[in-house]
Design a protein that fits this description.
By secondary structure, the protein is mainly alpha-helical. Helices cover 69% and strands 0% of the residues. It has ten helices and no strands. Helix 1 (2-13) runs parallel beside helix 5 (80-98), helix 3 runs antiparallel to helix 4 (49-68) and helix 7 (123-140) packs antiparallel against helix 8 (143-161). The chain is globular.
Length: 207
């Protein structure tokens, strides 16, 4: 049963939201434009808010729904095995998002889906990491830098604020931080060259 849950979580993560929406409604594969990434940020950049918002919401829900499969298991919610199952489902859906079987294994960076995962498993640490994300975003206007800083802060928030004592969850948080750095390596290069794209947070129109 657990193996089926893991497989379903991977297939759920493999739903290439940005690719399907781009091709269906705009006749565009977002992976061929912008950063070449099949994620919400590049969808906003290439196709705009009307496409970006649904992609963002669905990608978050993929992580949330995958982790929620744990409630169909026989594990007690207070049991450490329950959390470990949630982590397994979260990793499976992240792998699906990054390497989607339905889109030639060319997916996104997994930030939105990761948010959906940790929102369910560690809501307090997730909320604080989200605050850090927003602070860096408003300061730098770079989504990539904001994502990396939030990801790097997550293990520390989990340990020092949430007082986590689950070793597997600790390892997961460290892998999350490392994964965000690895998947954003091209962004890091652009940041160092001062070429990274910045988002327009507020638009002021003068009539």
């Amino acid at each position: 049963m657990v193996a089926l849950f893991i497989l379903f979580a991977y297939l759920l993560g493999s739903i290439p939201t940005s690719v399907w929406i781009g091709k269906r409604f705009y006749n565009i594969d977002v992976r061929e434009f912008g950063s070449g990434n099949a994620g919400a940020t590049n969808t906003f950049r290439v196709l705009g808010k009307k496409a970006g918002i649904p992609v963002l919401i669905i990608d978050i829900l993929k992580g949330t729904l995958a982790v929620s499969l744990s409630y169909l298991s026989s594990y007690e919610q207070s049991n450490e095995s329950f959390v470990n199952l949630q982590l397994g489902l979260g990793v499976a859906t992240l792998l699906g998002h990054i390497f989607p079987v339905f889109a030639g294994f060319r997916g996104g960076k997994g930030v939105a889906t990761l948010l959906g995962v940790i929102m369910c498993i560690t809501p307090v640490s997730c909320g604080l990491a989200l605050i850090i994300f927003l602070f860096v975003l408003f300061s730098s206007r770079m989504v990539s830098l904001s994502s990396m800083m939030a990801g790097l802060s997550y293990p520390f928030l989990l340990y020092f604020v949430a007082h986590n004592d689950n070793n597997i969850l600790t390892v997961f948080s460290i892998i999350v931080a490392a994964l965000l750095i690895v998947t954003h390596r091209k962004n890091i290069q652009r940041i160092l060259r001062k070429e990274e794209s910045k988002v327009q947070l507020f638009t002021v129109r003068i009539k």
